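Lecture notes, part 5. Sequence design as translation. It can be helpful to think of inverse folding as translation between two languages: the language of shapes and the language of residues. The source text, in structure tokens, appears below.
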């Protein structure tokens, strides 16, 4: 490549010199601006350089090059042949950037939110005393849980709620906390906890802890300081004057039965306990108590826990006037009012101010949720029985968030009347009352209730699991439900549960027996010694994880299949949920997603007999329905006419079908979705619609 300086000059190689041949120093020190306009060869008065417009012509054939002085370059750059392409490039860049920004904003605005971990996976409840005993003392422990983490991976479960393992005298098996910052030695050490949490996180699992704000153990340091009237702690609990010999300042009763007041000799007053007398109620009217409990939340969040199950929240505040609560049956003699169900709890449950306390804690969790990928979850425990609207308050308001969901305990009533219509009613109770846009959840068992396989009957365990895993929202699985564990028989002398000691029929022991891992000694729960804190169910040789893993048709295999399907199929985890049919036997619903031609129909028989369901009036369904999965394995793959869908009692069918006609637009009153999303098959993406 050569550069020419005007006619007749010799071609010059670029590397030959770093100077423009048309450029000359003016007395060795002239500025480039002067030089570019100077007549070459002529000397200029450096004090008054003249800019000669004709001289520029001389340089038009010289191209700019590296090392050329800035001013000369500027001169070139204002020439049209450089300026125009530059401007075109500039505006192209601006336009592209704007288009990209607009596209990004559109994609963000149109993308539905990703499901959070607590939405994508069932919540699995571990009762630590009963899950796995690693040291042979007959009681489960943290190391035992750690040994079994692969079980969650096998089930495709990500969220694990572990019932309390705080330091505790174990009057209520850990729900009576002596120190909220310590681990009970029965369960292990703080180091064991940290290792467990780290290992869970390594495996992609989330740990939800129990948080018990309503009460402490009577062995808690605060209670000892309160009963001795320490100035700071004297109002940490709810105290009132009472008669030492007949200590009943009012008619309030404990959930476990009898008066909720106990006289304390040390202080000479009565204290309130809505559960055991060893579980004094904290006084949340005292801001210091709230602060203490908030600090404890910080403590565990700092350790990295992923969420809390908030225990017995409706009990947190009581009316300060301490008036008697109205009796359900006013004609009943006052002295026979002894159980929770004898009173309307106008002054002890769900008092004004409760939600402000809980929303304050939500705000704390939200701060920690800002860490990338670290959403902190909160679920409430509140049994509100007929008052479902009280339960829904725990979702918060459109402006103030509270829990991600309150536990939905209404399916616990399922065994009262196993029928398609009944199950639909229970499901609808939640769907009809849940605030718009919120996320549902389903519970059929926990450590306070009889096992569903016993109360509903073993016949229904598979169809119940199918219901939970195909409804919209988060299912909860109490340990052992995935293999169909049943209640154990506990003789009076074997009763461990304080509630059972008060009233044997209220004992919660039957549903707390050791997890059945294998056919080995103690069902594999404790393989070191022959000791278990509650008896192992005698069916453990056939009902256990090891055996069921080998059987494709087992309760466990079906649970795993359905959970995998739920997580892999968009209609099942974020599609519409529409009621299709309900009668004395069958409850049927479908799940579909706009834009996706794959949909799912569930036909679940909760009745006592086989049923033939005629779905021919549902024109959105194809005439022939192919069974993807039946709880009755031999029916897998069968093709049914939609006018004759046959199911046995306790049988559930998942039918996958193709359709271009959606059910939801034609039946909006039968359909529900948390957050509308549509599928764009051309790009394989979801968008808000
Ligand atoms: C919750 C727990 C229950 C406990 C009670 C008192 O309801 O689930 O097990 O006994 O609170 O803490």
């Amino acid at each position: 490549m050569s550069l020419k300086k005007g006619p007749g000059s010799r071609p010059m190689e670029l590397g030959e010199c770093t100077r423009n041949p048309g450029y000359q120093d003016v007395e060795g020190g002239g500025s480039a601006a002067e030089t570019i306009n100077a007549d070459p060869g002529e000397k200029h008065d450096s004090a008054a350089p003249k800019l000669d417009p004709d001289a520029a012509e001389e340089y038009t054939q010289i191209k700019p090059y590296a090392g050329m002085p800035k001013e000369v370059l500027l001169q070139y750059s204002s020439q049209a042949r450089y300026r125009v392409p530059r401007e075109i490039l500039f505006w192209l860049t601006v336009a592209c950037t704007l288009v990209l920004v607009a596209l990004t904003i559109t994609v963000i605005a149109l993308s539905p939110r990703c499901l959070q971990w607590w939405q994508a996976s069932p919540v699995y409840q571990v009762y630590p005393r009963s899950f796995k005993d690693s040291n042979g003392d007959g009681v489960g422990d943290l190391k035992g849980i750690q040994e079994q983490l692969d079980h969650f991976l096998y089930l495709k479960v990500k969220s694990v709620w572990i019932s309390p393992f705080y330091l505790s005298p174990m009057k209520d098996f850990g729900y009576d906390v002596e120190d909220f910052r310590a681990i009970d030695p029965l369960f292990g050490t703080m180091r064991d906890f940290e290792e467990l949490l780290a290992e869970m996180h390594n495996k992609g699992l989330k740990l939800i802890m129990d948080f018990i704000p309503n009460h402490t153990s009577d062995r808690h340091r605060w209670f000892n300081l309160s009963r001795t009237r320490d100035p700071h702690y004297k109002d940490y609990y709810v105290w009132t004057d009472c008669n030492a010999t007949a200590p009943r300042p009012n008619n309030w009763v404990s959930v476990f039965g009898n008066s909720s007041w106990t006289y304390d000799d040390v202080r000479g007053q009565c204290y309130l306990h809505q559960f055991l007398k060893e579980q004094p109620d904290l006084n949340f009217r005292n801001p210091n108590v709230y602060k203490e409990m908030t600090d404890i939340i910080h403590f565990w969040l700092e350790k990295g826990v992923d969420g809390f199950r908030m225990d017995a929240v409706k009990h947190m505040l009581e009316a300060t006037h301490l008036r008697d609560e109205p009796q359900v049956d006013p004609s009943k003699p006052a002295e026979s009012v002894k159980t929770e169900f004898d009173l309307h709890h106008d002054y002890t449950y769900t008092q004004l101010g409760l939600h402000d306390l809980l929303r304050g804690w939500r705000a704390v969790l939200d701060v920690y949720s800002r860490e990338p990928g670290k959403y902190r979850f909160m679920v409430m425990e509140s049994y509100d029985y007929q008052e479902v609207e009280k339960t829904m308050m725990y979702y918060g308001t459109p402006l103030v968030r509270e829990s991600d969901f309150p536990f939905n305990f209404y399916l616990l009533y399922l065994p009262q009347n196993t029928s398609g219509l009944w199950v639909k009613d229970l499901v609808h109770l939640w769907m009809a009352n849940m605030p718009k846009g919120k996320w549902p959840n389903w519970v059929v068992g926990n450590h306070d209730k009889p096992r569903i396989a016993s109360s509903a009957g073993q016949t229904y365990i598979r169809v119940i699991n199918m219901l939970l895993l195909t409804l919209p929202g988060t299912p909860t699985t109490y340990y052992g439900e995935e293999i169909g564990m049943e209640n154990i028989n506990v003789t009076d002398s074997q009763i461990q549960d304080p509630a059972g000691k008060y009233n044997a029929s209220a004992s919660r022991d039957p549903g707390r027996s050791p997890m059945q891992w294998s056919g080995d000694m103690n069902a594999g729960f404790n393989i070191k010694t022959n000791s278990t804190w509650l008896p192992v169910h005698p069916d453990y040789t056939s009902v256990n994880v090891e055996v069921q893993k080998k059987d494709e048709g087992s309760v466990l295999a079906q649970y795993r299949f359905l959970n995998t399907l739920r997580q892999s199929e968009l209609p099942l985890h974020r599609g519409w949920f529409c009621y299709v049919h309900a009668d004395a036997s069958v409850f049927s619903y479908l799940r579909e997603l706009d834009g996706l031609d794959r949909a799912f129909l569930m036909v679940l028989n909760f009745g006592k007999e086989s049923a033939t369901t005629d779905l021919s009036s549902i024109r959105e369904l194809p005439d022939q329905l192919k069974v993807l999965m039946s709880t009755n394995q031999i029916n897998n793959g069968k093709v049914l006419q939609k006018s004759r869908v046959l199911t046995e009692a306790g049988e559930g069918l998942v039918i996958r079908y193709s359709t271009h006609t959606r059910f939801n637009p034609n039946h909006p009153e039968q359909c529900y979705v948390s957050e509308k999303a549509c599928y764009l098959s051309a790009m394989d993406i979801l968008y808000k619609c």
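The translated text above is only one of many valid answers, since several sequences can fold into similar shapes. The mean pLDDT is 92.
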